[in-house]
Amino acid sequence: MELYGYWRSSASYRVRIALHLKQLAFDYKPVHLVKDGGEQKSAEYAKLNPAKLVPTLVDGELELNQSLAIIEYLDSKAGPLLVPEDPKEAAIVRMLALDMACDLQPITNLRVLQYVSGTLDAGDEGRQAWIEHWVSSAFAAFEKRLEKHAGACCVGDEVSLADVCLVPQVYNALRFKIDLSPYPRLLQVYENLQQIDAFQKAQPDQQPDAVL
Amino acid sequence: MELYGYWRSSASYRVRIALHLKQLAFDYKPVHLVKDGGEQKSAEYAKLNPAKLVPTLVDGELELNQSLAIIEYLDSKAGPLLVPEDPKEAAIVRMLALDMACDLQPITNLRVLQYVSGTLDAGDEGRQAWIEHWVSSAFAAFEKRLEKHAGACCVGDEVSLADVCLVPQVYNALRFKIDLSPYPRLLQVYENLQQIDAFQKAQPDQQPDAVL
């Protein structure tokens, strides 16, 4: 399998975590989202993924975008299952995963930040306020959900798709120096997950295209 | 089951389509997103859904937010299946669904539009430009994906989660008077789906809380 991704993209980060948890071999193809206006906008990459976003996973003739669709597909190839088989448990895992992947990540990704700071002329200060607003809103709700569902991980004690989606958003929040002290459970779960080898291997700073 | 939703919320609209396709009975509980600053922000509703968003589905003791998690859960209760069993087909359906539900809807929903037009002071004109930018970007990519995957529906000829996610976004785009002529396949699929009874019953204008 080939994974087209970018070290700092949180959706790419999710897929890397899943691949490492499942110990599936993959060829990592970096797509630089900033250099030369963004390599994801090249004609070659747009042919593979017309949305000009990362990640894209290629598995034989199958070309998949959307990290959550990719990870559910990987569940059919190798364990551990990241979405449980029981429908009620699966629903809770997917719900927490989507809280991060739908209600937070798309609003704070690179292209939206560029529009806010650039096109809308909000500048660096407006961009920071934007990030803080959406992160604090999403994390406050997530902290409440963890009170109901969490153990060592987001849902009980087993690593799931919810964890795979949480960790990259915490990484981003720390990068933008958001105060996370109002979310002690979220931070505790994050720290628990950081102990796991697959989560370490998937970290942005550990990727070959990282610029440190 | 009880569905807390709002007539114009595209995520609520998705769940209504799925419930009607499956002919599952439900009690519709309107949550007015605008009146009195938004009923979703009330203490009572926030207890049920701390993200203060719609929809929320209550099924016995199970309280679920996130429309896609809800619809996959409904797949375990009654047919027709909206996510196919075959892992590759399921991946393509989920990918197209998420193209709408993750890469378009969250960026153009009410709370984000309020921030753009209000907090960022972009006004009605800036809000319209924002919507046009993200809709055209997402629909152009979706049109390409349909070339590869569509039949009468988004993926082949069977109604799937992808269709359930597409229709509310087209409704929104039409509401904001976006020119959809560059997306003929998308419009054709939309028109095919509009012929189906469940899609008609789920339309915003058909809901008891619609303000026409």
TrEMBL record, chains A, B:
Alphabetized GO MF terms: glutathione transferase activity; maleylacetoacetate isomerase activity
Domain GST N-terminal: 1-82
Domain GST C-terminal, residue spans: 86-212
SUPFAM superfamilies assigned to the protein according to its UniProt record, in alphabetical order: GST C-terminal domain-like (SSF47616), Thioredoxin-like (SSF52833)
Presence of the UniProt keyword Electron transport in the record: no
Entry GO CC: cytoplasm
Swiss-Prot/TrEMBL keywords: Isomerase
GO annotation (BP), single: L-phenylalanine catabolic process
InterPro entries per record: Glutathione-S-Trfase_C-like, Glutathione-S-Trfase_C_sf, Glutathione_S-Trfase, Glutathione_S-Trfase_N, GST_C, GST_Zeta, GST_Zeta_C, GST_Zeta_N
This protein's record includes keyword Isomerase: yes
Matches recorded under NCBIfam families: maiA
Family affiliation: Belongs to the GST superfamily. Zeta family.
Protein name (database record): Maleylacetoacetate isomerase
Organism: Aliidiomarina soli
